[in-house]
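Recall that a protein's primary structure is simply its ordered list of amino acids. Everything else, from secondary elements to tertiary packing, is in principle encoded there. The following example makes that idea concrete.
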Amino acid sequence: MKYKLAKPLSIYKKGARTNQEDAIFPKLGEATENDRLFILCDGMGGHEAGEVASQAVCQTMSDHILSQGNAEGVFTEDMFNDALQAAYDSLDEKDRAEDGKKMGTTMTFVKFHAGGCMVAHIGDSRIYHIRPSEKEILYVSRDHSLVRDLYELGEITWEEMKTSKQKNIITRAMQPHQAKRARADVRNISDIRPGDYFFMCSDGMLEEMEDNNLLNILSDDKTSDEEKVYILTEVSKDSRDNHSAHLIHVLEVEGGEQEPASDTFSESVADITAEDAVTPAPTPVPQTAVQTAAPQSETVPEKGNTFSKILKIAVFLVLLFALIYFAVLYFLNRGEVA
């Protein structure tokens, strides 16, 4: 598959923070329509530590992959894992923590190649694949976070998940000297069509924005990509956290499947289910709506409903038969007495 991309656009803001712990590749303003590799990391660990971790991962992975040449050739999961391990090695080398507090970072990864588009992530920074022509979110990465796990286990509601004091606790991150290095969830997307968007962002972008809002903004055919980025920047301007993003617009696809193709993916056994890698897109709301809204939950039939209905019908038939039986006996007895 070959692609023609619009010039990728980026957002890179500090929010209310005094330092920037996010890192993006390509850097702000440096992306061109010839780029096929995009990385975004959200560092953690306090001033300087988070910056070091996110920059190290971003720089090492991009250098490792670009050094292999053939930007549009087939890119495999083994090639991705080699770059990921190189980034972990870089973190180990840069670790200078003496107080036991480890630096760390999330990681999101998008790579267009001859076999499709590989997307991968660790942590709660997200990747979206959006098809404006159908006004649909085809894919959104699953957050590796405590509140997400609690929500899926039914311990908290959607609203509680958004407002929980534990919402910043992530269950997977890239850190130096891990006894077991965190694995990335990796997926290769082959159903890519002209007009599709890939949007990757740190969690700070989503403080004031729901999936519905993002879908509506990117599906508006009356606004240019530059205007879309301006709207996204305005929506997230009150975010307290660093917030960064890449917006990648696919203009043309050569040699791609025009019918939906089965995508391949690999996930860590730490996930609850494989299906949770894809969160169903909520029903779109009007474009004027900027207020957050929880996605509509799907109705799940209760266990035993079918058996219960059959049992009720059987009891009703037995009672009806008994009523008819005793009615017949009654009239027969009256006839004999007469």
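Residues 258-262, 268-308 have pLDDT under 50 and may be disordered. Helices lie at 49-66, 77-94, 146-152, 158-163, 211-219, 225-235, 305-337.
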